[in-house]
Amino acid sequence: MLEFDVIVVGAGHAGCEAALAPARMGLKTAIFTISLDKIGYMSCNPSLGGPAKSHLVREIDALGGEIARNIDKTFIQIRVLNTKKGPAVRSLRAQADKAQYTLQMKKTLENTENLDVIQGMVVDIIVEDGKAVGVKTKEGVEYRAKAIIIATGTFMRGLIQIGENHFEGGRMGELSSEELPLSLEKLGIGLGRFKTGTPARIDERTIDFSKMEEQPGDTTPLRFSNSSSYEELAKRRQIPCHLLHTNERVHQIIKDNKDRSPLYNGTIVGTGPRYCPSIEDKIFKYPDKTQHHIFLEKEGYDTNEIYVAGLSNSLPADVQYEILHSIEGLENAKIMRYAYAIEYDYVKTEELTYSLENKNIKNLYTAGQINGTSGYEEAAAQGIMAGINAARKIQGKDPIILDRADSYIGTLIDDIVSKGTNEPYRMFTARSEYRLILREDNADLRLSKIGYEVGLVSKEEYDKVLYKEKVVAEVIEKLKKQYVGSSNPRVNEVLAKYDETPVSNGISLFEFLRRPEVTYKDIKYVSELIEEFSLEDYDEDIEYQIEIQVKYSGYIERSMKSIEKHKSLEDKKIPENLDYDALENIPREAKEKLKSVRPLNIGQASRISGVSPADIQVLLIYLKMRGKN
Q: What would the pLDDT profile of 417-454 be if each residue is shown by its tens digit?
């Protein structure tokens, strides 16, 4: 019998981060996957990032995770979205070379010290005295561990639906896990049923791109990971994607075949993602819209497969064929892989603690789609936190619980644990009330300290973050103290360049930089005429950070005051063994919710669905009377 400190079940985006974290923290770790050829596989859209999702990727990188480094090694296009909007919602998005992404992640796992990569289907979780102590594979081999992390994605009782046809599968062409969910149910773990889907892939050679709008990547070098080299990234050849639209003919075909869609004829029972709907959902829920966006995205340098983003569906093959051929530019498109929907089991997150450990079975953690979320980024975020917390429990240390005021990861975990998931959860910037503070550009400043302290961020990398923090603060203070006026000809020269109102009185360089179009380089240009004053050139990340903190200083200050109020509630701890039944004047439904979630503090309790502000006041009075806060 083989023994490990940590065993991870599943090698998708959650599983990879969940395994790398404890291994890099010095614990003997094993990761199990049904297929060694599908490690970190992008089963749907071959891309990472976008609004809020890029924030998660940056935060994982700040904590010492791998997803950002891997996409930087393998992207075929990268661009910044929402450039005309504020920095809180600006986001990176990169298309990956799907095959290379998997190969690079596999290479990373296989060459990580303390990590064994094993092909095998886990069919049973071994529990003794209320604690997870090991797993059993289909081959009949038992492996023991001090902590188990389950990150099975869509594989638990996966059922693929294409029109009238359905068959078992965790993904197209891969086995589903039929025995593991039975094992979890025997342990008393509650399971639900969700649905997701993916569009067809078509042959690039059969597409008329002249009828579409080309969308190239950004020419400025961009990166997700602070450890990646801008110089190397600038050498990457980028592949454009293309924009096109559905039309009324397509919509009519879908309407005519409503009864053949498993989504609408009652075949599919699982709840689908509201914010990443199938094309059937779009047509029937928005009947007044005459067209919907479609993006064609190549799946890699060495393949002709094109991903048809925006056309996810579960319709029969013949209907899919008719739809594609009714879209301008796709009249002769050949389908290489058909679209399909997939139903799968997930764990009801009311059973999780904020460390992602199961409340009833100690040392058992879950991460990713098994927790009712959707998306690679959400999965990876949970994976690294489950990995860190499993390792820290073994080390005899307290778990790392990220606050929603400090990170999108904290917001994600707080949401799914406090509120549960009645539909696949997807992260949005709108989910965070502190999004102006939680920008993707400052993820390293917010979280690298934690990554360093747990042992996932090197001293060299952390020193770079400390240097950045120090320089930004020093330069901002310097700008506040230095004034310029119209006697400096470059001041109004810069303002004229941006059609800004010229200045007649003195103005600090800080206030000057607050002008919408003015950049740090403009300020440096102006400062060259100031005696005994100088500004240095810094790398792009530092200069951008200076600009953002200056331009949005007023908003940031107000947000910080809001966070202080939030922190005051988070600091009011709730005893783990509090007897909620002893609380008078709180309805039974609220008591049951509080007992189920077991919030760590008043802030978390206030966000539980079904717990009212009046209930929180009763709880506060109760704790105060007993001297708990």
A: 998 888 899 999 989 988 889 999 999 999 999 999 99
Contact 76, 67 (CB under 8 A): no
Cα–Cα distance for residue pair 314/302, rounded to 1 Å: 28
pLDDT tens, position by position, 135-191: 999 999 999 999 999 999 999 999 999 999 999 999 988 999 999 999 999 999 999
List the structure tokens of 322: 């008719």
Token couple for 165? 């046809």
Q: What angle do CA 499, 502, 506 make, to 5 degrees?
A: 145
Nearest to 73 by CA among 45, 102, 101, 93: 101
Residue 304: Cβ-neighbour burial (10 angstroms; 0-12, 13-18, 19+): middle
| Among the listed residues 275, 210, 242, 309, the one whose alpha carbon sits nearest the alpha carbon of residue 77 | 242
408-419 and 53-63 helices cross at what angle (nearest 10)? 110
Residue reference for tokens 């961009």:
222
**Nearest residue to 583 (alpha-carbon basis) of 572, 594, 573:** 594
pTM: 0.93
Closest by alpha carbon to 168, among 160, 217, 125, 559?
160
Residue 269's pLDDT is 80
For residues 251 and 290, is the Cβ–Cβ distance under 8 A?
A: yes
Nearest to 361 by CA among 349, 371, 352, 372: 352
Give the pLDDT score at 567: 81
Distance from C-alpha of 32 to C-alpha of 151, rounded to nearest angstrom: 10
Instruction: Name the helix (H) or strand (E) containing 539.
Output: none
Of 194-198, 322-326, 459-463, which range is least confident?
A: 194-198
Nearest to 391 by CA among 63, 40, 43, 52: 63
What CA dihedral angle connects 312, 13, 444 and 573, to 10 degrees? 100
End-to-end Cα spacing for the chain:
48
